[in-house]
Amino acid sequence: MLTLTSPVETWAHRWPAGPKLALLALATTGLLLLSAPVLLAGAALATAGLYMTAGRGFARTGARLLWPLWPFVLVVGLWHLWTADLTGGAAILLRMLTAVALANFVTMTTRLSDMLAVFQGLARPLSPLLPPRRLALAFALVIRFIPVMLQRMAQIEASWRARSPRPPRWRVLVPGVLAALDDADRVAEALRARGGAG
Question: Which of 63-77, 97-111, 143-157 has the highest mean pLDDT?
Fold first, then answer.
């Protein structure tokens, strides 16, 4: 649970965490500044090409990590169909999918310890108020847990569909929250076993 680094070794695994996180910040900022669907589609294709440079197996794993976003895609798509704003809807969906895919790429190719070191360095000016290691660990765990929880929700929904013909909808919220609490408890135990966050 403490790591989502892909076991498939790629060229991106050899890049330091700092430059990768900086490029991710620049790329997501650029996506927010773009509004034309054509440009955003180009960014999405470039992201897909980035995954393909790491191999088909790596790209398939990256595509699976995007699958849990389908409820958001459905809601945003239906809303913009209803409001007849197809251009705006396409821009939002392309921006969201590309940003998450880029974040997943960094997550899959960066060790948690390397991310922790970067965040710890950035948090050093706040040391009089908060221990940098704790703040860095919090940032790193948030980045790691987003795809984990999306994947867990997809598993819960799949389990529901295997047992009931009705759509899951709100019924998966309670199991999802319980799974999140269980995962948090396991991570806390793992951290305590390793000496804590301090």
Answer: 97-111
